[in-house]
Target: 2-hydroxy-6-oxo-6-(2'-aminophenyl)hexa-2, 4-dienoic acid hydrolase
Amino acid sequence: MAGAQSRTVVVDGVRTHYIEAGEGEPLVLIHGGEFGACAEISWEFNIGPLAEHYRVIAPDMLGYGRTEKIFSFENFWQKRVDHIAALLRLLGIEAAHFCGNSMGGTMILAEAANAGQSWPVGSVVSVCGGSPVNEAARQVLHTYDLTLEGMRAITGLLVQAPQLRGDEDYIRRRHELSLLPGAWEATAAPRFSAPNRPARLPRPALRPEAIGVPTLVIGGASDPVNDPAFAPTLAESIPGGELLMIDGAGHCPQIDQPGVFNAQVIEFLRRNPLARR
Model:
């Protein structure tokens, strides 16, 4: 990530880390929700190429990476949305392209469909977002015990690129990020609920038909976490939605096939500049 700057600011009293690079129209990258997830690990193969064309801002969400480990048991989803909104206001971002992987993609889809949206969404790139996680994948993701072997299993599930799946240094980096104080607790917390209390909804209901900005849905043709058939269905339900299925990619196409991913995202964003709207 040559030229990228790691920055830390205080947002509404919360220590917040983000990576910034490049100039031009803002492009906000929102990472996924797995153990060890953060801007650094989700977008390390993308920030540099995308920053050649855009001002890239990749935050660590509440509870992830080097952002403070805070979790709201009242409404954890909205707390994270509000936190990113406050960061963007602090940075003076009034309109931006948004690209998110997995949970990050789901959050962007939900915000783009929200009439009172908190995020200034000018266009959407959803990467394996919006779909329920299949049960086999859920078992791997939810039983993580902070061991290197556990992270090896998560990496093997999320990453399909052979050169990374077998790279012990890469797996160890993911493992070390998951060991940051409070990281496991903040990631696992959504599953905790008190006895005899209704379960919390993990996310708002998606309303893809209400999305009114240019949207590109990206799916991995070999995604073991979501049903790959979900991406075409999602794209069809969004007015004017576009679809890109990437061969040789799983749940993180931006990691498995970064060359294809970067080129196609740049091409989509060029066709849909913020200046037109």
User: Anything to note?
Assistant: The chain has one domain: 5-193+200-276. DSSP finds twelve helices and eight strands in the chain. The longest strand covers residues 14-21. The chain has a mean pLDDT of 94.
